Fold this sequence. Notes:
Blueprint: E1 13-15, E2 18-20, E3 27-32, E4 35-44, H1 48-67, H2 70-86, H3 88-99, H4 103-123, E5 131-132, E6 139-147, E7 150-154, H5 162-173, E8 177-181, H6 187-200, E9 207-209, H7 214-223, E10 227-233, H8 236-248, E11 252-256, E12 261-265, H9 271-283, E13 293-299, H10 300-316, H11 335-351, E14 354-357, E15 376-379, H12 386-389, E16 396-402, H13 405-413, E17 417-418, E18 420-424, H14 428-437, E19 442-445, E20 461-462, E21 465-466, H15 472-477, E22 480-488
Parallel strand pairs: 7-8, 7-10, 8-9, 10-11, 12-13, 12-18, 13-16, 15-16, 18-19
Antiparallel strand pairs: 1-2, 3-4, 5-6, 6-22, 11-21, 14-15, 17-20
Amino acid sequence: MTTSTSAEKKFHNFIGGEWLPPSSGTYAPNRNPANTDDVIGHYPVSAKQDALDAIAAAKDAFPAWSSLPAPARGRILWKAVDLFRARHEDLARMLCREEGKTFAESKGEVGKGINLLEFYAGEGFRMHGRTLPSEMKQTFTYTLRQPLGVVALITPWNFPFAIPVWKSAPALVMGNTVVMKPASNTPGTATMITELFQEAGVPKGVFNLVTGPGGAVGNTLVDHPEVKAVSFTGSNGVGLALNERAAKRGIKVLCEMGGKNPVVVMDDADLDLAITGILQGAYGSTGQRCTATSRVVVQRGVKDKLTEALVAGAQKLRVGNGMEAGIDMGPAVDESQLKTDLSYIDIGKSEGAKLLCGGERITDGAMGKGYFVRPAVFSGVKVGMRLHQEEVFGPVISIVEVGDFEEALHAANAVEFGLSASIYTRDANTAMKFVERSEVGMVHVNNPTVGGEAQLPFGGWKSTGVGGREMAQEGGEFFTQLKTVFFDYTGAARTSKIY
Length: 499
Ligand code: NAP
């Protein structure tokens, strides 16, 4: 176990059931984005060889793991559920410290990940195919779900607990062996997950962790002939290139990528409800959620009132170190994301949108050692602007004014992304029309754009997602291949023809 979190502590990769130093001998400091003097530890900057070793270990472990009955695999995950629960606050503390979201948000994310683990532990009892009638007499036809083999999981930093769990739990319970590469910004939470899987009794080689750069480790995983599927969550740039690379080998690949999620507010909306929902959706987790609310499409009659309330709400938020009591919003995850946030403030202004509040870096006192930015609201945003089209991944709201429902629907849909969308209205007909015509994988009514539940499929349309859905039964099915069985029990040669 490598649980110490002292600044000098070196952490390792987990390969074939052992904690091993990286072949490169190189480690990188993991710094708290709220205070870059706070070093959580040093984590491996792995190279190709470490990925190859992890794949070899996962390959060796596959025959025994895949032949263990699925309910028995599920029981090991149940044991992990108990261990994760017992360490809930420790996990949340690590998450808060390395990613920056508030402690309350971190605890919420860990709770959500544990729900997912619980759900998939139970899926061990439900790894079912279907029985279907055959055209032929005395023939039993059915389908079986079987594991794929070694699978690679590549995860982002913004949900460093929930996403590794929602990929690894279904992969494991379905009988695959795993090599996981977490984001370089958040190796600490991934290391704790791995420690707890080990403690729960996941056998040697079944779950392997390799931290390090996407280019070296990620590409090795995607290109290796023993890797039978890749599940990736991250940016569109990386995801689409990875999808193409994996597709050349004809393997299964799932990529969940960016979002640009709108909230539509109609004149008849419950405005208090809409304001609360928009502020939560836009500034929760510092806007660093794939489902974050980044566009507010508002009908003319309530535009001024809504805009005023959003500005007041943004200005009231207490920004600071997420570990401190009373803080509503933490920092950007790193310098690069901070620069991206600030660059979109400049882009918005140069395009002619009006910055009503926020958008500047905060350097007062202790915040000077972190990557803090004040929550921003832009009005006068038009559909063609980059601010309307591109994912910022920071605490920025863009307000677009529209005249009626058709205009609102057009503005909401007129982006390349299709993850989540929401409408606030008291009219059930309007709500149902929006549900039907919204071009997204997840739609909310009178609810923020954020959120997901273990038993509900999660993922996007258009350029947000390729390869299927995560979470729920669908998330498990990705990690299986289907076999159709024809079992003839006539005991004699057929008299009828087979086509
Ligand atoms: P990212 O830069 O694309 O990185 C994601 C992962 O890919 C990291 O582990 C990264 O490693 C790795 N990677 C980088 N280059 C690679 C390569 N050439 N081959 C293989 N792997 C490579 O994304 P991010 O900044 O971590 O995450 C933010 C993005 O994720 C946003 O766009 C957000 O919308 C999206 N997201 C989507 C969902 C969803 O469900 N739709 C959920 C959460 C987040 P390094 O860290 O070492 O670079």
